[in-house]
Amino acid sequence: MTSAGSAKKVVVLDYGFGNVRSAERALARAGADVEITRDYDTAMNADGLLVPGVGAFAACMEGLRAARGDWIVGRRLSGGRPVMGICVGMQILFAHGVEHGVASEGLDEWPGTVEPLKADIVPHMGWNTVEAPADSELFRGLDADERYYFVHSYAVHDWSLETANPAMRAPRVTWATHGAPFVAAVENGALWATQFHPEKSGDAGAHLLKNWIGTL
């Protein structure tokens, strides 16, 4: 437990895929008490878990499983403990990823397939705007024309998960466009994620991370 007034404890999951030092610095800037580790108990007991990711979908999944990250994410979410994924750390939350025609299994927290971007210029590298829902907590206080930093060649183009229970809040999905619309961020109960890199998105990214930390 974190005592009132103290910084929230956030673990950056170190499973070999992701710029953990950049994430650590950005989270510390946003006010968190940050630790980089793959230790199971430390990751389970933190107020928030951040899952970074760079490289290939299949390789990230292999590294995540080797570090028991799939167990950590699943157990945290089953207990309503916050998890946030970034870039490929977001993509592996979906059911499948297809790279070079080969399908790989993801964590299946959300239905959907990560596939090549439908654009003439790939990768999508640089700054882009997003279209966030009006009730977004992640983007609260940020201007609609704010820009975020993307580096990716794959994305999810179709979102199918909704809730039939009126007592439950439907997932809030943020979109961006590069050639065709794709999922840029998701807020779904304890599980949040961004396709872009908030740790590389300057003041806007810091504000966004502070919004997440404020919910922990």
Automatic annotation (TrEMBL):
Limits of the Glutamine amidotransferase domain: 11-212
- Primary localisation category: cytoplasm
What are the catalytic residues?
C87 (nucleophile), H197, E199
Report the catalytic activity: L-glutamine + H2O = L-glutamate + NH4(+); 5-[(5-phospho-1-deoxy-D-ribulos-1-ylimino)methylamino]-1-(5-phospho-beta-D-ribosyl)imidazole-4-carboxamide + L-glutamine = D-erythro-1-(imidazol-4-yl)glycerol 3-phosphate + 5-amino-1-(5-phospho-beta-D-ribosyl)imidazole-4-carboxamide + L-glutamate + H(+)
List, in alphabetical order, the GO biological process terms annotated in this UniProt record: L-histidine biosynthetic process
Q: Which UniProt keywords apply?
A: Amino-acid biosynthesis, Cytoplasm, Glutamine amidotransferase, Histidine biosynthesis, Hydrolase, Lyase
The cross-references to Pfam families, in alphabetical order and at most eight, read: GATase (PF00117)
Entry GO CC: cytoplasm
Q: What is the protein's given name?
A: Imidazole glycerol phosphate synthase subunit HisH
**Which organism does this record belong to?**
Streptomyces longispororuber
Q: Which lineage do the record's taxonomy fields give for this organism?
A: Bacteria, Bacillati, Actinomycetota, Actinomycetes, Kitasatosporales
Gene name of the record: hisH
